[in-house]
# Entry
Amino acid sequence: MAKRRLSTAGRALAVALVFALLFAVSGSVFISASADTLGTTIYVKTTKTTTPYLYYWGDGGKPDWPGKAMTSEGDNVYSFELPYDIGDLTGIIVCKDGGGEKLTDNVTTFTGNLYDVDSGTWSMYDTSGIKITSFGGNVESPQYIGASITLAMEAEGGSGDLQYKISISGDANEVLSDFSSTKSVIWNPTKEGTYKVLFEVKDGSGDTNSRTVEYVVKDAANAEDPIFLSATPANGSEIQKGGSTTVTINGAGGKVNNNILFYKAEVFDASGNAVNTPYYTTGNRVTFTPDQEGEYTVKMYIQNNTVNNKTVDVTYTFKSTSNPISDTDTTVNPVKVASIALDKTNAELKTGESTTLTATVTPSNADDKSVTWTSSDEKVATVSNGKVTAVAEGTAVITATTNDGGFKAECTVVVTKEQGNTTDTQTDTQTDTQTDTQTDTTTDTQTDTQTDTTTDTTTDTQTDTATDTQTDTDTTTEVDTDILGDVDRTGKVELKDAYILQSAAIGKIMLTTAQIARGDVNHDGVISLKDASMVQRASLGLETLK
# Structure
């Protein structure tokens, strides 16, 4: 495979572009800090006075009006040491020259420790030798199990090279990326709860600085509104000019009416021209061929099936490139891994069953796309090259980790006990009230070895007067007939069959080989949302399955 060769300036520009593109989704990085990271020193920046006073109130009390004089820090920045944490403040007012003339109205929202009077915005005023210039995620809290959240930070200053660490704590504890030059990592939460994301940086002398962000993670199992989890390739990835590019949208929610989600994608080239004709379908993919270099934009929509058709939309950008090779610069610029995603985030297996997980590493032209597979509990489930085998009842988390960059993606596997086919030994609670009307020519002297549906457990020595032609009926509603689309084998195609196929298509349940054969109504060899849609239409009499 040909590799890109860029000059030193070109490589620096490429790194900057990739990092900038990383946060194109949902606006720029948001910063959210708790009281323990804001501290007690509050700063004000203003050009409207050189002697500002701070009036404040909160759980820790308030001063007399017009407040307290602030101390100059230089560069139009002034400070005041509060008697309690900034997080306990209810509001502040900045006054001019100690005379009570207000420079601000009541400020009651605190998202940093430095308030700019001129712009009316908050930021972090960092007095450490290592200054954290940005930190956070590309999407805001709350998020959902299976979401793909990009966490990143930037810092400057200190002595020597800076190293970064990103970890989570709360309902699950994990180091997502240990101290290294890596500034960003993708987090795929697998458990609902409240988490603190800790961003840490240290320099060559061992000096450190840190920030925290809080995330609430929810389970989308019963969510009615549509939810965007992630898309593949990852936002900011490179795509090949002239090559076929497929973008897969991963959604959740829509648990209302027939439990079907609809997807649409609008693709625009580097000149802003529409590339495709978008429309809503049950398919969650869009394929296009970039015919020019530059930034391609894909706006993705997910919609539920309600009267108001609630919709969520997210925009990703991709860089189309021809991967040019310079004849004058022989320096090889390796293509690094940016993210990894699994085709399933949840799976249910019975003991002895297996399923195969598919890992997608982006960008698609990364030099090292190798993956290491691990299981959190091999007594419950083992994994080899993506093939997961259920061993015993329990829950195990299967993790795929890229060898380049250590990016991770997880799938939670729930193993239940195999319900094998055993001899029917249950006692039927019904009483046989029929009377034999025909005379049997022989006397039945054999012991009845089949468990009858009555409570009669003695040897049958009476003379039968009729030939017993009835067969014990199993308690299940399953019928011995294979009908295309009748996944649960009830003898007819129903909305329940469409729901089963939808759940299988998004990886929430596993189907048997026989169920797959009955559910693959479009005969393409896989269970997809298209099969679910066709079965739904068939159950309503709008389509005939062949």
Remarks:
- DSSP finds five helices and 33 strands in the chain.
- Residues 1-36, 324-332, 420-476 have pLDDT under 50 and may be disordered.
- The two ends are 44 Å apart (CA to CA).
